[in-house]
Fold this protein.
Amino acid sequence: MGLIQKIFGTYSDREIKRILPMQKKVLDLEEKYRAMTDEELKATTPALKERIAGGEDLNSVLPDAFACCREAADRVLGMRHFPVQILGGIVLHQGRIAEMRTGEGKTLVATLPAYLNALTGKGVHIVTVNDYLAKRDSEWMGKVYRFLGLSVGLIVHGLDNAERRAAYACDITYGTNNEFGFDYLRDNMVIYKTDKVQREHYFAIVDEVDSILIDEARTPLIISGQGDKSTDLYQKADQFAKRLKVVRVTEQDNKEEHDDVDGDYIVDEKARTATLTAAGVKKAEEFFGIENLTDGDNMEIQHHINQAIRAHGIMQRDVDYVVKDGEVIIVDEFTGRLMLGRRYNEGLHQAIEAKEGVKVERESKTLATITFQNFFRMYDKLAGMTGTALTEADEFMQIYKLDVVEIPTNKPIARVDNPDVVYKTEQAKFNAVIENIIDCHKKGQPVLVGTISIEKSELLSSMLKRHGIKHEVLNAKYHEKEAEIVAQAGKYGAVTIATNMAGRGTDIMLGGNAEYMAKADLRAAGYDDEIISEATGFADTDNAEILEARKMFREKMDQYRAEISTEAEKVKEAGGLMIIGTERHESRRIDNQLRGRAGRQGDPGETRFFMSLEDDLMRLFGGERIQNMMNMIGAEDDLPIEAKILSNSIESAQMKVETRNFSIRKNVLQFDDVMNRQREIIYSQRNKVLEGEDISDIVKKMVSETIDETVDRYLVDKEVHDNWNLEGLRDYFLGWLTVPEDMRYNTEQLSEVTDEDIKKMLKERAEKIYAAREQKFTSPIMREVERVVLLRNVDTKWMQHIDDMEELKRGMYLRSYAQKDPVVEYRIEGFDMFDAMIESIREDTVKLMFTIQLRTNEEPKREQVAKPTEEAHGTSDGSLENKPRHVKKVGRNDPCPCGSGKKYKKCCGRDA
């Protein structure tokens, strides 16, 4: 801690000091609310709603709302918010991030701001990382809200539209980030207003906010439709990639030096890129039978090769993904969990499938997409909770305008964080880890060992087996038992190996977890998982079997709690939970999450990280500096070095990676911001149509603008009428606005007529034809036709535009070679394309309104343009690589070949 912090305190200290008076007001009301009857307490909710409806500020209502909710939680759950939890609740209500240590009761804290803000009637969303936590918290904390007269909804996978709509209509709605995001996208694809499920986005409280807003920020949500491209080229590119020789480098700047080495492609391990060398390009041209790989016509082949060499050179089995039941499943780099249902986009997943010899699935077509960054920024107020946010405070502020406030713990922290130890070799490091585990095991101290890959967890497991030490392994391959294994990691003498932060959201209690032991007894008694889930949940029921199982569960819980209490004392005497990190993660935050598993609620605990110079972080980012230090110190391979200067260098290496990753996420956001503005315009227009607005004036304006622009396009020269393309103009409108005899002027007539005369004639005729159609079909049907036609055109063009923008983005990285800012170029060209799309929507809508065939007095039916086939996340790789762009022979800004003198994009290019 620096001198200034010692004098003035940290930012969090100062912010906590500011809200202490508000906390005191809540605590002062404790006796008032404790003295109330249940009926009086319940009557507080409508009274507070009236005060808010009468114009009173939420901050002035806060003390009463918090005190009321606190008393209700005590009566219903037997849990009264501690004073520090009230501080956390105030921070969340203010729209900030509350950093609270593991075991400090974040779930209970959220009830305070959720109850207060739900009194507005606008709805509060509480966002969790998985369905299990959403269900558990909605039932558990839902008892408090329901006692106070508020409704609680739950959004999980598998609900139909009616169930979702009912859940969103509740005062407080629990769900996962994925479900909230996908529902937003689906709402903007519906064809009837009544099919929408969400309300406004008023206030969201995000649990594990760093996981959702930081770790997930590079992975856009995507709703896809069925693609139609063959997968043969992936197989061929894979065959080619298998023949190539790879050269690995760790410094991006040195790639040029390697271009003439004996290799076909270079893998930059630091930047995670794979690039063909000149020799590789030559081999590709021979293998695929083409003259020039970089030719525009061969961009698709180049794209497939790029993905194939990435699949072989960068993506590692049992690190980045696993193969299970003939399927490639992504492993979450932050949690070690399997990401079921997710696929890498841009063909990378297909390339890995070809590499692993499993069925290659077809690429899908994107129908709708949004990043979590832009989704959560739509909320009027956003707040978050986590145990680890301070290291990312700058990013939270820059991207989300959220500051991080560290909430004091209820009890002093008794955990000891030992200095890092560094070995020269990985083998020496693992030998030391095993020795440490054996020492702890002898005295009964439970050990949780964190690894960063499945491969390393299985290596440690085999070493422990050789020493005869019983242990549990938790990685993506064995995720089914995750919560159970993690819950028992605090038992006397337990040894648990876990990949990354697996088991997040499950408390490790010293002596063991009574809940999971009782669940195991229910399973042994023959109850199925569904009954166990209901019996151990908090939902009200009159099902006899569930009630019987619940009775047994509670009896077993009481029995095990007594046993665990005794065992917990033995564990405390042994030193509490020992956390061993076998490698530093790229992010300090992930290391802090591992540390945070020990020392919950004032329990004793210990942590230590073991590293070697062969670890990826040290090898790629530590540079030669750390190696030179080790050599200067003269360290033996099997002797550890504990030096503060080494720890500082390691932290510096981590900060380098964090800065790079933040830069990638920021880059993703800058590109998505361009798309987001366009998405807002399109969705706003769609909503006007869905709301059933009369858009006849909009359509009439479209008719007028289409006539003006089309006449200007064909009658370019205002002075020399002989140059007018009257035949082209007539043909454009033929069959719906013109007839073959129109605009056949003699020389005298041609010299006298003006372009304005022609515009006037066409507009008057359009008005008459439109009025006649309206009279024939009736006004109500015509209004619905306008809505149906516009909606269909908007959806069709928008989906194509999403693909076009993706293709545009792939080629943007090349602009940096021309000293141009790719984001600026993308914004300029993207809006040109957007303008062209709007023009195309207008022209197609006008044409269809004059040609559509209807039966008299029969209202047209709306149809969805494309039906979603899957929901997924894009790749978490933020690199901008080259995807096929099917280069056109004429550039969008080139003169149009028709000779009009206009740019191609403003002329014939609109129809291309």
In short: The domain at 3-223+373-406 is CATH 3.40.50.300 (Rossmann fold). Confidence is low (pLDDT under 50) at residues 876-891, 895-902, 907-912.
